[in-house]
Design a protein that fits this description.
The chain is an alpha+beta fold. It has a single domain, classed as Roll (Nuclear Transport Factor 2, Chain: A), CATH 3.10.450. Strands 1, 2, 3, 4, 5, 6, 7 and 8 form an eight-stranded mixed sheet that branches. The longest helix has 32 residues. The two termini are 36 Å apart.
């Protein structure tokens, strides 16, 4: 005979599995919109009802609050596309943990990618663009929305020279230049002179979200 407790456990596991699939689709649609410069569609996937919604992108700083998130997405992604340009990020290796209270989730994806940079008066330049995404999701009504988003840039370099020779595109001080940006929490791209750190952390099972994205920066992989 199946006990009531067992029935509840099975039902919760089914809810977590459903959430996992929905979160995968949400991030997939978000990245697809990013790849094709669809700023309005990206914003549909953010929890803009949350005062502490945030977006952090490489060393551009942290954009916290609905207005700051809207501004940076519209300024960076909403630019008019030009002939020959491309940025195509892929999502791999999803690691998603849904909270026991089924209200939030923590997730990480690895993002290999490539692109083409167009500079005035010259031919498009092929580049590598690799990184990782760390994200918190929150349940709003019947939908999962991105609550905290952090793109950890790992490689951005010339396709021809590769990441060991060309560090020109990532060799910048970790100082935000946008007036709405708060200081970057973490930016440590590949360098031939440094040892790689295991950041962002893989999410671990948890009951209730602590309310910040600090878990992404945990360097202790035994937790």
């Amino acid at each position: 005979m199946i006990t009531e407790a067992r029935k509840k456990d099975v039902f919760k596991n089914l809810q977590k599995l459903e959430a996992y699939q929905e979160i995968q689709n949400e991030m997939g649609r978000t990245v697809a919109a990013f790849n094709f410069r669809q700023a309005d569609k990206i914003l549909l996937h953010f929890a803009l009802e949350e005062e502490d919604v945030s977006l952090e992108y490489a060393d551009e700083g942290v954009f916290q609050g609905p207005e700051a998130v809207k501004v940076i997405v519209e300024e960076v992604v909403g630019k008019t596309p030009v002939k020959g340009e491309m940025l195509d990020l892929q999502l791999t290796t999803p690691m998603i943990e849904v909270a026991e209270d089924l209200h939030t989730a923590k997730a990480v994806w690895w993002c290999p990618g490539g692109g083409a940079v167009v500079k005035e008066g010259s031919e498009p330049e092929a580049i590598w663009a690799w990184g990782m995404i760390g994200a918190d999701f929150i349940r709003e009504g019947e939908e999962w929305k991105i609550w905290h988003f952090h793109y950890f840039r790992y490689i951005k370099c010339s396709y021809d020279k590769g990441w060991t020779e060309d560090t020109s595109m990532i060799n910048r001080p970790n100082t935000p230049v946008h007036p709405l940006a708060k200081p970057t929490t973490y930016h440590n791209p590949y360098s031939p002179l440094a040892v790689r750190e295991a950041v962002p952390a893989c999410p671990r099972p948890y009951a209730v979200h602590e309310g910040t994205a600090d878990w992404m920066l945990c360097r202790d992989k035994t937790k």
